[in-house]
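Open question from group meeting: does this chain pack into something compact, or does most of it stay loose? Before anyone orders reagents, we agreed to write out a predicted structure and look at it together. Recording both the input and the output here so the notebook holds the full record.
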Amino acid sequence: MSRIVFLVEEYSMKVLLDVLLPRLVPGLAFLCVPHQGKQDLEKSIPKKLRAWHEPGVRFVVLRDNDRADCRALKGRLVALCRNGGRQDTLVRIACQELEAWYLGEPAALAQAFGNERLREIGAKARYRDPDVVASPSAEVSKLVPEFQKVSGARRMARTLSRLGNGSRSFEALMQGIEREAALLDVTPGAGRPA
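Structure tokens returned:
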């Protein structure tokens, strides 16, 4: 079976992708494998890639940046994929955290949490480039006191759109997934909500 296997840092990333991808990339066969944080993920990458013998599988590694040197981090993850024998693995990094993607689309954040005032955060200088916000999860928690990582990921997955997100790391992830889907002969964006 041709599909994409996502190796992700944490459970909230799995929850987000499990709900988001069927909406934005209909027909994509995929599996999300969550880990217990970045160290667990990095330790498992070469082992999982070496051990996975399913034909037609493409891999994507997704991890938060967490204020690391982005280029050095990506280089390290790419090297781990090479050590696992899968140089074709797509590596993507959420800058700085997954929650930056939520800040990148204020309308989706407002819709997900039923708070129209959240639509206005995009006009504030500190949210114009969500990928440079030092701690996006803390910012989202300030804006939405009831926010929790897993339930928040589920809510946001229902409202995020393919276009209009101010996060470059979200855009890079979606472009990468669409390229991988094309390699699997899935038509990306068919039925894509605006």
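Observations to bring back to the group:
DSSP finds eight helices and four strands in the chain.
The chain has two domains: 3-96+166-183, 100-159.
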